[in-house]
Amino acid sequence: MIQExxxxxxxTWLLEWDADRWGAFWHFLLVxxxxxxxxxxxxxxxxxxxxxPVKAGERAxxxxxxxxxxxxxxxxxxIWAIARVAMQEALRRRVLVAVAVFVLLLLFAxxxxxxxxxxxxxxxxxxxxxxxxxGLFIALLLSVFSLPNDFKTxxxxxxxxxxxxxxxxxxxxxxxxxxxxxxLLLVMxxxxxxxxSRALTHxxxxxxxxxxxxxxxxxxxxxxxxxxxxxxxIIAMYEHGHEHSVEKRGDRxxxxxxxxxxxxxxxxxxxxxxxxxxxxxxxxxxxxxxxxGYRSFIEGGTQAAAVxxxxxxxxxxxxxxxxxxxxxxxxxxxxxxxxxxxxxNTPVQGIIQLKRPGSDLKTEPEFFFADDNTIDLKxxxxxxxxxxxxxxxxxxxxxxxxxxxxxxVQCLDRAQYFGFARGDCYIHLRDASPFWxxxxxxxxxxxxxxxxxxxxxxxSTVLSGPIAMLFTVSFILLGFQRDFLMGVATDKVExxxxxxxxxxxxxxxxxxxxxxxxxxxIKLMRLVDDGLQALMQVLASVLPDFGNLSTADYxxxxxxxxxxxxLQQLFLGGAYVIGLAIVGYFLLRNREVAK
Amino acid sequence: xxxxxxxETRALSKVYRDFWGRQKVRxxxxxxxxxxxxxxxxxxxxxGSGKTTTIKLLLGLxxxxxxxxxxLGKPATDVEKNERIGYLPEESYLYRFLNAEETLDFYGRLxxxxxxxxxxxxxxxxxQVKLDxxxxxxxxxxxxxxxxxxxxxxxxxxxxxxILLDEPTSGLDPIGTREMKDWILELRDQGKTVVMCSHLLAxxxxxxxxxxILHQGELxxxxxxxxxxxxxxxxxxxxxxxxxxxxxxxxxxxxxxxxELLSMDNPTTTLEELFLSIVRDSEARPGRRVVRxxxxxxxxxSGESTEPPSTAS
Lengths: 595, 313
Ligand SMILES: Nc1ncnc2c1ncn2[C@@H]1O[C@H](COP(=O)(O)OP(=O)(O)OP(=O)(O)O)[C@@H](O)[C@H]1O
Ligand SMILES: [Mg+2]
What we know:
The structure holds 2 protein chains of 2 kinds.
Chain A: H1 10-15, H2 24-51, H3 53-71, H4 76-92, H5 96-112, H6 119-152, H7 155-160, H8 166-200, E1 226-228, E2 234-239, E3 242-249, E4 252-255, E5 265-269, E6 271-275, E7 281-282, E8 296-299, E9 305-310, E10 319-320, E11 326-333, E12 335-338, E13 348-355, E14 366-370, E15 375-381, E16 383-385, E17 391-393, H9 394-398, E18 405-411, E19 416-420, E20 425-431, H10 434-459, H11 465-480, H12 482-489, H13 498-504, H14 520-542, H15 546-549, H16 552-557, H17 563-589
Antiparallel strand pairs in A: 1-2, 2-3, 3-4, 5-20, 6-7, 6-9, 8-19, 9-18, 10-11, 11-15, 11-20, 12-19, 13-14, 13-18, 16-17
Chain B: E1 5-17, E2 23-36, E3 40-44, H1 51-59, E4 66-71, E5 74-75, E6 85-88, H2 100-109, H3 115-128, H4 144-155, E7 162-166, H5 174-189, E8 193-198, H6 201-207, E9 210-215, E10 218-224, H7 225-229, H8 244-256, H9 271-284
Helix pairs in contact in B: 2-3
The structure holds adenosine-5'-triphosphate and magnesium ion.
Adenosine-5'-triphosphate binds next to strand 2 and helix 1 of chain B.
């Protein structure tokens, strides 16, 4: 799972006051203040052109004064009245048909979605993606045509001539459609959960014979190896992401439903740094090309290593296996990049060691065979031996006073590479409830939906239905591309600004090489680009980062979604609703309704 | 502004512009009006003369290009005034997917009315506008007259002090028209102010205390209905049982006093004539006309005594 940026602690995220990163709250304030100033200035300029400065000032004053007065007149009673009508409108427009479509989709999906590897991942990705697209689409359709429709049928005349404030109309609509959308998500979520658990569940049979057979029967495209544990319990061994327990009843064997198929691992992440071929610390490893850009690579057979530093290691970090003692559960995902094929069936070998930070004390290398992109488990017991074959204690010797521990990974095979990113190695603290994890993923979808509704309602205060739809859709698409937009705007993406890119594409120019002669045209191009880039940066800083709002990957890959993340998303959603409602208020309040 | 002035406009003007700000229509030109508490005021004028525009300006649905409108002592764009206003639009613009009860419930919730009172009022209004049988049917199934009725009920849900009716009788059958007029008079008797616009002269004549006649956005005539209809230099004589001699005698008397006998017929409705003459006149000589509003003593808010005081000026 790709997790680009470490998740900030909630308070830092919200309130940090730093030159590099403003907390989300300050960012929100800044955007609102800039927006207010900008609209005031533009309003004054246009007003002055049309009516002269005195009248323009008077009008601007009235708009602002009205806004402050009406802010205190927003009434829950009226908001609720409007929300009710919005819901009735939605239900009469037969949104429930959408639910039927979704359920049908699930019924048929069962036939097409077949996989031998990681079925849980496939199913979860499928249902979560389907829900979020269908959910967002319906929310969009409902909310974007509602106000324009009121304008078209002039129903709005009878509404705004009641003591309704523009804010009531906007918040009421957002609330109403959110409630309808929540109902939809609830139904779709329930259906999805049922679908996934039904689709994943299966069982095998074990032939009843004197000796325990070697394997179970085949089912769902796989079979399990059978083993008897020391305590007599029969286990259908880990395969396809799950195991079964087997019980012997008389002559017959009863196989349980799959266990551990749906997981919600709670990981403890560390900080990642790299050592280069000479063993010198560097910020990044080797890059092996674009598609792999997110990971850095270390070369096999050299001193190059990936080193994670974990914080806060203590007794509670270890898992207690009862009589077997306590273990440090480390899980690692390796991307293997082969510069020569060798024997594709022979895995590339690597070693993993624990190290005390700031000293040379290291455990004896633990060997592992890297299977590309699968999770490898390494359980380190409490008593280990170091590289000089001396016994060391995990907590006493290897963990530093301030609770830090390093994990060092190297590749052994020459000219083969291991690729890592920060999230690829973690300590598996425990498993959270997969059900609640699923709920959390739906909360993310819900937040996305609310943001879409808020954008749509705000846009539709002044735009006609289809135009508002176009506006909202481009908002969403740009939101998904926010990182790229920001990258282009801040020159992090190679190839210059938009105009420069336009020049480079038809002339088949390399993205990195500079223009040979710096004549006036080039200078002008750069200048225009600078302006455009500034605009893009402004745009990107108000767009919702829809990519980041999606937590489907967590569930699909079996990781617990931190509540912190959910909370951040909820706050973000709230901020968009507030910000957009304020913008919408001004747009609607100052629109000539009967025009 | 005097206490009993409910609506006041000062040089109220409206120019409709297109998207690019180019001038399209001058719908209203410097309208000065005062409407007093407790009267039924009629806005009269041919199609496109600016009646609806005036009402929309009073409601804040449109912003004036120039001048200002004060309604219940507040600027027309102030939302607060809506607490005491009822509005019946030209056509009833209501949610077609709601039924009569839900419609009134929705609009009722927009006011600060306790739920029991709201329910009571909904019931009363539905009965009053005779929609009892159709109260559970969606408005999309309503006939035009039924829609008008629910529109009126919607306008009265807050027991407003000022009611603006845009062509209240359009789409109603003769019986419905009669009922609508009775309701309007009933409202006036309750001490409410009614502003209605119409081009149906009979309606206006029947219910309005004062009228303003608009043509091409200009105020042409303003005053009490009976004053406007009284032609000052014409005396109408009607009597029963006069002999031919007596009639001749009267003719002689008129001739002796240098009078000219026009007719000795029964009087006719003359609002229509007045209206047509004003329109004809204004087409012949465009421009603002001095309105002969005799600074009439505004009628006191008096329940029953709506008999027009026959002021001679
Ligand atoms: N939204 C608008 N855009 C442009 N012009 C308009 C608009 N609404 C009205 N007009 C014009 O303004 C003028 C006055 O229209 P208004 O609706 O006030 O007339 P009216 O007196 O109510 O007529 P009717 O008796 O037909 O209802 C007309 O010339 C009309 O074409
Ligand atoms: Mg009209």
